[in-house]
């Protein structure tokens, strides 16, 4: 109710502000024609242009902004069409972009069309549309499922572009390598299309890029390591594609990186060995779910002090859970489920309490928790209690049997829950040493 009232009130307010900014009514005739052409090609109400002869002054068009841009005329600087534009007619089902119209809007800085092309395969971006449109800074065509065909390589002629967002459309084909010529681009969002093929190496030409979102496409091939030279990058989301190969170590050198999401790909490789150095201590979100990562989780994750969310679920990570993760002060979400992690969970009770159900360690067959350490059901864990006994020297039947079965040396969960003594003991070698060390410390303290 209050919101509706606010909307009603804001209509005359919007109209008033846009008309008051008009210094005169004069708009170059060619520009006026081009604007009319575009809006009649898009909007359902064909009488709209006739009813609003002065789009920049007395009869303003919602979503259209004009400015004199230090000339004697009014020029169209921004066109925005979408369901959020109050009192604008909706797009027609046969909406299209006239190939040459934008060329007659030489002062256009921003073009954004939301949810306009909805009929499947009803519209495309003709290559000629972008030629010489050097003023355009923001091109945002989002949520237009009917907008299909390829992204024309002529987009690279838009040399002033800082934001290119073509998310949630029906684009197919590859990412044009020419896109790398947009050296002023700060945001590239091509997410939720059907883009296929490799990510072009040329993307490394985007030297100002802060946000790269290529998620939810059908991209394949390797991640170009040249992305690692884009030192302005703060957010990389290439999740939900079919990328293969390793995460290039160069990614670890992006010092401003805040978010890295490469989940749901066919990426592979151990973290360690050729470690992903992840120097960006500002990193707050890392998503590497459902890749094919294997090997241990590097304890260096524990030095990413800004980390709020870490998802490594559904990989083949093995070794132990680094206890250092549990001292990350901002961490609020940790998913390590569906891996091959082993050994005792060493997180503090406080940490486990803080994360609650946002701590997920399920589906790791060889993880175990000290009996009664954590509150029952306090986090997502299906691990049994660690096999326990007061004797460090005697490996215990269960562990001995485990060793015989598969020749593997590890801390064994007490699957049969047969040991009730409450003191943990572990399988042979490493684990036994740890336990012995603990025992030695205890002895030293008591002495
Ligand atoms: C990953 O690769 C496997 C086999 O190599 C294939 O079956 C699967 O579809 C691929 N997954 C993705 C997300 O590309
Ligand atoms: C982890 O798995 C790799 C093979 O994927 C194996 O070589 C390595 O020994 C395993 N490490 C541990 C600690 O289980
Ligand atoms: C953790 O990941 C698993 C597997 O991908 C998923 O099913 C589960 O919902 C996630 N848990 C949380 C708490 O997000």
Automatic annotation (TrEMBL):
User: Which locations, inside or outside the cell, does it occupy?
Assistant: Cell membrane
Q: Which SMART domains match?
A: LRR_TYP
Can you name this protein? Piriformospora indica-insensitive protein 2
Q: Does the keyword Phosphoprotein apply?
A: no
Keywords tagged on the record:
Cell membrane, Glycoprotein, Leucine-rich repeat, Membrane, Receptor, Repeat, Signal, Transmembrane, Transmembrane helix
Q: Report the principal subcellular site.
A: membrane
Q: Name one GO cellular component term.
A: plasma membrane
- UniProt GO BP: detection of stimulus; response to other organism
Region of interest called Disordered, as start-end residue ranges on this chain: 393-416
Q: Which residues cross the membrane?
A: none
Q: How does it sit in the membrane?
A: Single-pass type I membrane protein
* Entry-linked InterPro entries: Leu-rich_rpt, Leu-rich_rpt_typical-subtyp, LRR_dom_sf, RLP_Defense
Query: What superkingdom does the record give?
Result: Eukaryota
Signal peptide range? 1-16
């Amino acid at each position: 109710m209050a919101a509706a009232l606010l909307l009603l009130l804001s209509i005359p307010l919007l109209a008033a502000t846009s008309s008051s900014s008009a210094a005169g009514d004069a708009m170059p005739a060619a520009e006026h024609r081009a604007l009319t052409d575009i809006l009649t090609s898009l909007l359902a109400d064909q009488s709209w242009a006739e009813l609003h002869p002065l789009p920049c002054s007395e009869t303003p068009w919602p979503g259209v902004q004009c400015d004199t841009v230090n000339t004697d005329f009014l020029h169209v600087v921004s066109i925005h069409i979408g369901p959020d534009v109050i009192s604008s007619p909706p797009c027609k089902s046969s909406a299209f972009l006239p190939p040459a119209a934008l060329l007659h809007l030489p002062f256009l800085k921003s073009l954004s069309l939301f949810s306009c092309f909805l009929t499947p395969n009803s519209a495309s971006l003709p290559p000629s549309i972008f030629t010489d449109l050097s003023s355009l800074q923001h091109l945002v065509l989002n949520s237009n499922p009917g907008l299909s065909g390829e992204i024309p390589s002529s987009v690279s002629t838009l040399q002033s572009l800082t934001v290119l967002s073509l998310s949630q459309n029906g684009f197919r084909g590859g990412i044009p390598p020419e896109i790398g010529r947009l050296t002023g681009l700060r945001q590239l969002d091509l997410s939720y299309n059907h883009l296929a093929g490799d990510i072009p190496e040329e993307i490394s030409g985007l030297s100002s890029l802060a946000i790269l979102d290529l998620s939810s496409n059908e991209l394949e091939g390797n991640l170009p390591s040249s992305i690692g030279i884009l030192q302005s990058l703060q957010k990389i989301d290439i999740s939900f594609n079919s990328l293969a190969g390793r995460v290039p170590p160069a990614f670890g050198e992006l010092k401003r990186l805040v978010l890295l999401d490469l989940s749901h790909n066919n990426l592979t490789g151990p973290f360690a060995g050729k470690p992903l150095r992840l120097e960006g201590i500002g990193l707050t979100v890392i998503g590497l779910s459902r890749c094919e990562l294997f090997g241990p989780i590097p304890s260096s994750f524990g030095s990413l002090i800004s980390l709020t969310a870490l998802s490594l679920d559904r990989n083949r990570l093995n070794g132990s859970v680094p206890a250092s993760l549990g001292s990350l002060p901002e961490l609020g979400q940790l998913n390590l489920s569906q891996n091959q992690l082993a050994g005792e969970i060493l997180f503090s009770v406080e940490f486990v309490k803080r994360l609650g159900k946002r701590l997920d360690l399920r589906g790791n067959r060889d993880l175990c928790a000290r009996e009664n350490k954590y509150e029952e059901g306090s986090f997502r864990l299906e691990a049994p209690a660690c096999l326990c006994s007061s004797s460090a020297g005697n490996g215990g039947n269960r562990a001995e049997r485990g060793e015989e079965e598969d020749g593997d040396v590890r801390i064994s969960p007490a699957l049969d829950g047969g040991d009730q003594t409450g003191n943990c003991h572990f399988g042979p070698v490493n684990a036994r040493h740890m336990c012995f060390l603990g025992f030695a410390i205890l002895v030293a303290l008591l002495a």
